[in-house]
Amino acid sequence: MLRFGLVGYGQHAKWAVHQALQKHAKHGKLVAVADLLLENLAAVGDPDIATYTDYRKMIDRESLDALYVATGPEAHAAPTIYGLEAGLHVICEKPMAANADECRAMVAAAEQTGRILAIDFENRFMTHTNQVKAWIDAGYLGKVRAFHFQQMWDGHKAFGPIAARRARLTNAAGSLDCSIHELDLARYWSGGGEWREIQAMGMWFGENLVRSPHISLLAQLSTGALVTLNSSFAYTAYIEPRATSDVITIVGTEGVINHFASEEGASGFKLTSRQLTDTCPMAHVPHYTAIGWVVDELANLVEGRIASSSRLATGLDGWMAQIITDEANRQCIARRID
Q1: For the chain, what is the radius of gyration of the CA atoms?
Q2: What number of other Cβ atoms are within 10 A of residue 270's Cβ?
Q3: How many CB atoms lie within 10 A of CB 162?
Q4: Which domains does the chain carry?
Q5: So what's the pLDDT on residue 283?
Q6: Is it the case that residue 338 has pLDDT exceeding 90?
Q7: H/E element holding 134?
Q8: How far apart are CA 278 and CA 237, in angstroms?
Q9: 303-328 in b/e burial notation, b at 16+ Cβ within 10 A?
Q10: Spatial separation of the C-alpha atoms in residues 239 and 167, rounded to whole Å
Q11: Using CA atoms, how far apart are residues 194 and 214, in angstroms rounded to an integer?
């Protein structure tokens, strides 16, 4: 059982990470929380969990095995590096850091200390995600040549009780704060690779935001696969009704995989190939459940139940996602049209 310290106790930590560690992870336990704000620490609500306003004191004083960093991305690097240098394994939320240079430093710290640095790309653990990977790895698509993603939603609305949180997340990474998962899945499904030929444009909708809430991105992986992504936090963000638009299409030389949704609300993935036609259902999994899986995968590695894991995203995976996020947002700002 890994003893975890949690850095950052904002909305995501309260809603998801705390529950994951206390109720859903089989091999992880939350023993201490650090946050700058006393009102956040007062919400922990468990006398058995120690609270600190300084994450360094928490790490120095508590008997910890691992750290979960759930601050905003601009504050990920310092506690991650401090934790690694203190001998702890670290799970860091996505996006990995404020920029790719900080990611490089975090990866270097993990390498120097021999500790595991994992990034919470929890979609890698979904059953449907791994069925898609199994179809690709089995060769049913032949050579994968293109991934096409569309992820459009309201980002929790530009008005209402968490509008300020939405603005902070958007200003940190644009709509790629969420769609960074799709960028990671392209690499996960295609077996890795580095990003090249990145092109992006963004659109603003009257919000006072530095980074774009709506991004169209085109890039290529060094594996040869083309990747397109239409990502939005602006889709019904300014009106009361809610709508979403999610599309995934994977095109290979011998077949295709498509995400589908029925009028009855069922959704899943369909494989159509020269050798096989098959379907896989897609189930909604709460964040706290999926984070529990990430925690357990780290614990399984640390405690020797498994020798390796392709599902657990590494610091390198987070760094690669940060590189394309940084460049896409840079181009969106440079090409801004109001």
Answers
A1: 20
A2: 13
A3: 14
A4: 2-122+291-307 (3.40.50.720), 144-252+319-334 (3.30.360.10)
A5: 87
A6: no
A7: helix 127-137
A8: 36
A9: eeeeeebebbbbbbbbbbbbbbbbbb
A10: 16
A11: 24
In the chain the first and final C-alpha atoms are separated, in Å, by 52
111: Cβ–Cβ under 8 A, 6 or more apart, which residues? none
Give which of 31, 10, 45, 3 is closest to 295, Cα–Cα. 3
Q: Which residues contact 68 (CB under 8 A, 6 or more apart)?
A: 4, 5, 6, 7, 17, 21, 90, 91, 92, 295
pLDDT > 90 fraction of the chain, expressed in percent and rounded? 97
Question: Model-level pTM?
Answer: 0.96
Q: What is the C-alpha to C-alpha distance for residues 87 and 91, in angstroms, rounded to an integer?
A: 13
Strand partners, 246: 151
pLDDT digits (tens, 9 = 90+) for 65-92: 999 999 999 999 999 999 999 999 999 9
258: amino acid identity, one letter: N
* Residue indicated by tokens 């899945």: 185
